[in-house]
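lol ok so funny story. i was supposed to be doing the assay writeup but got distracted and ended up predicting the structure for this chain instead. priorities right. anyway since i did it might as well share w the group, maybe its usefull for someone
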Amino acid sequence: MMYKIKVQGDRFVDELGRHVILHGINLNCKNKDRGYIGDWCSSDFQKMKQWGFNVIRLGIIWDGIEPFPGQYDDAYLEKVRTLIRLAHQQDLYVFLDMHQDLYSSLFSDGAPSWATITDEEVYTPSDLWSEAYWSNGAVQRAFDHFWNNSLAADGIGIQDHIIAAWAHVVKQLGKEPNVIGYDLLNEPSMGSEIQKMIEALLSSYARISASYTGQEPPSPEDLSIIWDDPDRKKDMFLFLNQPAFFAKLMDSVAPMQAKFEHETLSEFYRKSARAIREFDPHGIIFLETNYMANAGISSAITFITNKQGDKDGQQAYAPHGYDLVTDSDEVHAPDNRRVDFIFQRHEETRSRLELPMLIGEWGAYMESEMAEEASLHVKGIFERLLCSDTYWLYHHPNMDQYTTIKGICRGYPMAVSGKLISYSYESADSCYTMQWIEDENTSNPTKIYLPNIVNVNLHVEKNTGIRYSIEEIEGCHGGYLYIEPSNGGMRTLQIG
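and the output, tada:
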């Protein structure tokens, strides 16, 4: 049985009050020629269940929702509903992600053409697609007009349009029993202000690196040339691989994005959430950071408030975490120290907001030679932080042949009857350990997913016995371990 998920303090909980870890994957079709709907079927969702997932971050595209101003394509939303129901058949929760890349369907995916105002700037693809955020005038001006709520042809602000589109989506799909919430905008970018931030980053790099070398700092122009040269770029990573240097660099520009996040972005979140609340008072609002915070710049977003000014009780922090080399020619050379820093910064923001955290995107390793090590390292971070996550991206059911599956398909506590203290899973020997403080007088079991449920060998603190049951998942070796309650208090579990 699926129980509705809600936020309680800094945790996700189900209707039984159990502490829930959400672990899953992104499902997204950005192809306009396919109507933004992939050719997924029930077997794909069955595979996700077999891998131990319990949630999907399901991408929806504004261009598909509102192809003309104020005109909604409900046929598109019905296709989205079909996917939501296929997920429900496999006990998978869904939260909807208003996805964009480079703002517009004219450049990549996201806003419809009528909501893309470029002031006659021209979009030209770059070798690394994401560099267009800080190098292309058309992308930047389109974001500027979005944040300024410039008027569309019908005289209504384009930001007002997407907020109304969200309300329509929630009205249509929000009552599906496995829809738990809404990710308001994928990786929002600052627009033209990002150029100043990049210039400041280059200046800071020059200044900080000079303090290490004792040499005259290179000019920002020289650094731009070096960054664009694949061979010379490696020299810059000699410093970027040093944690202290990287931290100083990221912190040097944090104030520049703070104003945008604290005011512009957070206000958009507040307005969007209040429109959503008209149709779903209880769905979780997932808050993302500014795009630049993906790399470890501290976020300044604020939590959303209701019309009375009180903190909305159903919201979560949903940042993304990618190393600098993601999507680039250097993808084979991730640095775990930088990755540690990125997620530590996210944890600091989560703690400030006092919200649960779900990492909405991570991974995208492209099966590089370091993919297995990188995925296992991030898995360990998530275990330490006790956070939730959705991996980027579901490609096909044979993804379990990738080396990254060792970090993606892992043992973890799906629902803990009490307070989770710690857990870890080692894929090499299928060893799982866990500690939790069990609620007193509870009759609800703790549910754990294990990739290999066969021949489970259980040990507990002081060799006391435990009562448990096993539920196998059809078509795989994985399954669920249910630990029956035992008078409350500290409990320890060891498997293998």
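The first strand starts at residue 6 and ends at 8. The longest helix spans residues 254-277.
back to the writeup now i swear
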